[in-house]
Each structure stands twice: as C-alpha cells, then as structure tokens.
Design brief:
6 strands; mainly beta; 125 residues; OB fold (Dihydrolipoamide Acetyltransferase, E2P); 9% helix; five-stranded mixed barrel
C-alpha cells in the first residue's frame, strides 16, 4: 500500500494568488506558514517557521482564491515535486496539491466550505 497525504495547519502569509498555465488553465497559489517551537539545551525557547507552497486547481482553486493573508487554515493534499530550468540550471520545487481546505478562524467556521468536484473542502469544527 502507498499513500502520499499531508496535513498542514498554519497561517496564510499573503493573499491567495490566481495564475494561469500556458494552456490557460487557472490555479491558485497559497503560501502557508507553519511554526515549530522547542526548548534548546539551555532551556531557552527557539522557534522555526516553515513556508509551504500550496496549489489548488479548477473550481476548488476559485474557492481558494478568496482566502486572504492571516487566515488560519488546515490544508490537506498530496505532496508533489516538479522540475524546471532557470538560467540553464535545473531547479526542483515541492508543492502541496490541495484537495481540502478548512478555515480555522472562529468567525470563518460558520461560512460554507466549497468543495472541489468530487471532493470535500472540510467540515467546520
């Protein structure tokens, strides 16, 4: 059995950005920050913020395009990598192909979560 599934809980670092492929298919890019905190060997608190690039396609991408900086979200999906060339050098980027987004802000929980076709967008807590 194989499984490629990731769940992230964090805050949007900027407003969602709608883009188009060369074939004119639209998608939405989300930049999600997650934070880890720990005590070091001296007992001092340390923290590290990781930034995650999340992509939503089609109708689900249209829903994701309404998300704004600072929103507290749970995003689930598949971790994917892709390669491209920049200035003659091969580059690799890792992205989460989002298929579920849940707003965790209390005020936002009551709003309807719009699912992608054939998928769920999450259920308010």
């Amino acid at each position: 059995m194989y499984q490629n599934r990731i769940t992230l809980i964090g805050f949007l670092g900027r407003d969602a950005e709608v883009r188009n492929t060369r074939n004119n298919s639209s998608y939405t890019v989300l930049s999600l920050a997650t934070k880890t905190s720990w005590k070091d060997h001296d007992g001092e608190w340390q923290s590290r913020t990781e930034w995650h690039r999340c992509i939503a396609w089609g109708k689900f991408g249209e829903f994701a395009a309404t998300l704004t900086k600072g929103m507290h979200l749970q995003i689930e999906g598949e971790l994917r990598s892709r390669e491209y060339q920049r200035e003659g050098a091969n580059q690799r980027v890792w992205e989460i192909r989002a298929d579920s987004i849940l707003k965790l802000d209390r005020a936002e929980r009551q709003e309807e979560q719009v699912p992608a076709e054939g998928e769920t967008a999450g259920v308010p807590l």
